[in-house]
Prior knowledge:
Elements (H helix, E strand, L loop, with lengths): L7 E4 L3 H12 L4 E4 L3 H8 L10 H7 L4 E4 L2 H7 L2 E4 L14 H9 L7 E4 L7 H11 L6 E4 L9 H6 L4 E4 L4 H10 L6 E4 L1 H32 L3 H9 L20 H14 L5 H14 L1 H10 L6 E5 L14 H11 L3 E5 L4 H7 L4 E2 L3 H5 L4 E4 L4 H4 L3 H7 L4 E4 L6 H6 L3 E3 L13
Parallel strand pairs: 1-2, 1-4, 2-3, 4-5, 5-6, 7-8, 9-10, 9-12, 10-11, 12-13, 13-14
Helix pairs in contact: 1-3, 9-11, 9-12, 11-12
The chain binds nicotinamide-adenine-dinucleotide.
Nicotinamide-adenine-dinucleotide binds next to helix 1 and helix 5.
Amino acid sequence: MSADRQPIGVIGTGYVGLVTAAGFAELGSDVWCIDIDADKIECLERGEIPIYEPGLQELVARNRERMRFSMDIADALGHARLLFVAVGTPPTYSGDADLSAVQAVVDSIPPSDRHALVMKSTVPVGTGRAIKRVLREQDKDGLRYVSCPEFLKEGTAVADFLEPDRVVIGDDGDWAGDAVAALYAPLDAPLVRTDIASAEMVKLASNAFLATKISFINEIANVCEETGADVIEVAKGMGLDARIGPQFLQAGLGFGGSCFPKDVTALKQLAGNSGYHFQLLNAVIEVNELQKRRVMSKLHKHLGSLVGKRVALLGLAFKPNTDDMREATSLVLSARLQADGAKVVVYDPVAEGEARKLIQGVDFAQSAMECVSGADAVVLVTEWAEFKELDWGTTAEAMSGTLIIDGRNALDAEAITAAGLIYEGIGRTRDGVAKDH
Length: 437
Ligand SMILES: NC(=O)c1ccc[n+]([C@@H]2O[C@H](COP(=O)([O-])OP(=O)(O)OC[C@H]3O[C@@H](n4cnc5c(N)ncnc54)[C@H](O)[C@@H]3O)[C@@H](O)[C@H]2O)c1
């Protein structure tokens, strides 16, 4: 252990927990990593990383002697005062956050006046207050509570941990909030110290705002298609306005993943449960659902009936550089295509294992070229770098048809049309090249 850094515990070693644990280990802390998933703990003890996240393998390997893995929370309690909670909070059927894993962690901690729970999981506003009430009822009010929401993005999670835009800490003004702030101090990031409810809301509001930006540009894209404007040009012109900024202005097939869909819905539910109708978020969610299906009308426009047509989906993960398939657009698309009678062949550089658990009835190709071979149409679903570098001449020869739908506006439209293929982006002029220059 580094002389001035206390050991910490991290409960839940998924995307957030493992990155947080490895990140703090990199900063010099001894970290006790706890999970109820025996396979995951065994895998981590062998030095293997159960998820695909660029740079994480190296970070864990470099700090291996500071990281310990266990299924027994007592190991963390025995060595660490701060227990970071990074368990899942998936949506329930109603759209509210399922807090049963968080509750299980709270219940498993014995009375103590030297420990604090530090909530990294994304939870509804009011969760901290509710947990403190439960702790009082369980005669565990010596336990401190801190909200420290996580903003990392899968695919760049390691860099996001080490160079965060900000660190948000919501606390009751006791030792625990200061201890969390001290842990993050070496990162020299802007620090927002606030109350617990406000910290909880920062997380939900941030994700809801980013999702709103995506749905907004998708609606602009749809209007561009009707009016002859090109959304790439429009987004460039808008994004240079410092009040708007260029990020999350990429039109495409909508957002997915483990966070945006559930967090937007959870905020909408939270507002509704508190008596407020959050109208804007209803539209954000609805636009996103429609956007995922927009490819279907484009396919029908060019191919007519899809019965017996071979449609290749390039990319399955909800975004590049991750194997996370939660709420991925590919899940909706592959089902819709099959319902319309298409033969679906898919390829993803890393997500095949996860995808096989969720997608039935499709052929899994082992390379992009195998995927596009014999296809009547190719749809880019996830903008992995290797798809941007495809040789479109070779692709055109391998395909049966000529239609390329660029669901992420990430491909080289000119190279595609030059190869004799038809290019369709999202919100773009037909061949992807802006006119009237
Ligand atoms: N994934 C992201 O990009 C991201 C970003 C910011 C915030 N978050 C939030 O962080 C939280 C965790 O997300 P994730 O993607 O890392 O989830 P995950 O599903 O990858 O990991 C959760 C882990 O918690 C473990 N777990 C469940 N119950 C447990 C218990 N009682 N004790 C110990 N371990 C337990 C699970 O086995 C799993 O390994 C969620 O609330 C999520 O909304 C996620």
